[in-house]
């Protein structure tokens, strides 16, 4: 196998197999972009990664699989006959290619020349492409700016996003699976329903894979919310303002977030209503709710192996999950599935919610399964708990002379204030009170999310493991 390609995948921030033993067991060229200039070929490869060991554990929502499992990753590559100095930072390697001869290979997403081919293909879908069938779809109602230059986003992402000028944003899905991509399906439905809470979908790219007789959704093109502010950043700024004025209450400080939290609650309720109208709403009977409780208990069992510090909270958590068994049944529908403040963008025209892919580590079938709306509500509420704790942990904004316990008091006040504003607005928009059954469900989803976070932090940000543990300690 191609060692350069394997090394490059291993280092990529979107590669989800880090920390496991794996190897590149195959690459398949599934499509070539038409109309490349002389000296350049641009192709999409599917790389098959095979794991040689099971994951070290199997905890809380992390479906890393077992030995022998494979994942497919999408690699758009630019093949140049001559080296490209301007693309040195995006170099994959240099080798003899069966079709293209001796080539200098670069990550195509960094290359403005290569990305222009994608944009043109969306604007005027080619009838066929060399190898495989790359099927470019465009929704009516938006003329793409074909002069726009591409810029690759640099954030920590599980996929790769490329902005085209100020006009459009293309998200290239990295780990791909045959079948419907929920991000595309949900954006399409919400765009066509006229929702004001998502970035409008402009188009998407399917691979009609003749070898396996399946369709794989490769990329999504949507409205670029260029001037939007990230909800997480806004929340942190609000907390810092509060900490800098330790004598004042959250509602007395400039930058109070409660109005935004309420608008977020309304936006989420509107999105849930649109999703309920356009995707199936199902009833889960008491037995199915028992299965939900059992799944949460199972995730806790697995999490205890990874985070032994969860042990003192296990009995209380089991009681919270067990109380689900007293419910007669619940309604489920299409939801976001992985909602937190980092998935929200504040624009001049209100809040937008992004990334409807669900938890990327979960298998596709699970991500498409209807779930309770309270999963999304719980996700946001956990974010309101995280924000002040993160500011405190990272030493943010404590006024000289202020006591840490005063700051902790303020932190709890900030979380409670925004949780209440969000929840009140959410239930008001749905036209219902938070009844006993909903409250029980919300508590269970909150507990399930904290358990998930303990594992997530242990694996990814051990310095932050105190955040979910402290939340559990205070709830005890
Ligand atoms: N339409 C958009 N306009 C501007 N920024 C966006 C848009 N959609 C997402 N983003 C930002 O791009 C980043 C990655 O988006 P996301 O959909 O969460 O990708 P991933 O699936 O890789 O996690 C986030 O910081 C998000 O705020
Ligand atoms: O954005 P992703 O879909 O990859 O979600 C994962 O990473 C999130 C962190 O970026 C993580 O969220 C947790 O930390 C957030 C602050 O960084 C906080 O706002 C969330 O409430 C908290 O759950 C998320 O759990 C994980 O799935």
Automatic annotation (TrEMBL):
Transmembrane segments: none annotated. It comes from the Bacteria. Pathway: Glycan biosynthesis; glycogen biosynthesis. Pfam families: Mak_N_cap. Residues 8-111 form the Maltokinase N-terminal cap domain. Keywords: ATP-binding, Carbohydrate metabolism, Glycogen biosynthesis, Glycogen metabolism, Kinase, Nucleotide-binding, Transferase. It catalyses: D-maltose + ATP = alpha-maltose 1-phosphate + ADP + H(+). Its EC number is 2.7.1.175. Belongs to the aminoglycoside phosphotransferase family. Monomer. This is Maltokinase.
């Amino acid at each position: 196998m191609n060692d350069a390609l394997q090394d490059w995948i291993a280092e990529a921030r979107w590669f989800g197999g880090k920390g496991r033993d794996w190897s590149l067991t195959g690459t398949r060229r599934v499509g070539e972009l038409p109309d490349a200039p002389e000296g350049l070929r641009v192709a999409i490869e599917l790389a098959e990664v095979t794991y040689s060991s099971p994951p070290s554990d199997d905890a809380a929502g992390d479906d890393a699989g077992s030995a022998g499992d494979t994942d497919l990753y999408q690699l758009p590559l630019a093949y140049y006959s001559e080296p490209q100095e301007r693309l040195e930072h995006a170099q994959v390697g240099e080798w003899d290619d069966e079709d293209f001869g001796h080539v200098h290979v670069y990550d195509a997403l960094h290359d403005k020349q290569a990305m222009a081919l994608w944009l043109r293909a969306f604007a005027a879908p080619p009838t066929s492409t060399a190898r495989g069938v790359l099927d470019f779809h465009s929704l009516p109602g938006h003329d793409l700016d074909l002069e726009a230059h591409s810029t690759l986003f640099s954030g920590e992402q599980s996929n790769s996003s490329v902005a085209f000028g100020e006009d459009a944003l293309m998200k290239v899905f990295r780990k791909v699976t045959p079948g419907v991509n929920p991000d595309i399906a949900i954006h399409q439905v919400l765009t066509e329903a006229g929702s004001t809470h998502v970035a409008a979908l402009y188009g998407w790219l399917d691979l009609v894979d003749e070898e396996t007789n399946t369709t794989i959704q490769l990329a999504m093109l949507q409205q670029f919310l260029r001037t939007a502010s990230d909800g997480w950043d806004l929340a942190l700024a609000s907390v810092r303002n509060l900490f800098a004025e330790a004598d004042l209450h959250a509602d007395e400080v400039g930058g109070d977030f409660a109005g935004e939290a309420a608008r977020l609650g309304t936006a989420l309720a509107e999105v849930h209503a649109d999703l309920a109208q356009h995707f199936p709403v199902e009833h889960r009977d008491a037995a199915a709710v028992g299965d939900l409780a059992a799944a949460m208990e199972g995730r806790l069992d697995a999490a205890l192996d990874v985070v032994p510090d969860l042990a003192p909270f296990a009995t209380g958590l089991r009681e919270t999950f067990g109380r689900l068994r007293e419910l007669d049944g619940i309604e489920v529908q299409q939801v976001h599935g992985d909602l937190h403040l980092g998935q929200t963008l504040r624009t001049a025209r209100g809040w937008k919610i992004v990334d409807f892919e669900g938890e990327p580590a979960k298998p596709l079938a699970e991500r498409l399964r209807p779930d309770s709306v309270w999963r999304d509500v719980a996700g946001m509420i956990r974010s309101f708990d995280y924000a002040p704790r993160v500011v405190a942990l990272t030493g943010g904004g404590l006024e000289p002379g202020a006591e840490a316990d005063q700051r902790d008091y303020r932190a709890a006040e900030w979380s409670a204030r925004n949780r209440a504003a969000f929840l009140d607005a959410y239930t008001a928009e749905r036209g219902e009170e938070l009844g006993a059954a909903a409250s029980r469900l919300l508590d269970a989803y909150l507990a399930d999310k904290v358990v998930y976070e303990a594992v997530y932090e242990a694996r990814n940000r051990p310095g932050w493991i105190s955040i979910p543990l402290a939340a559990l300690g205070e709830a005890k």
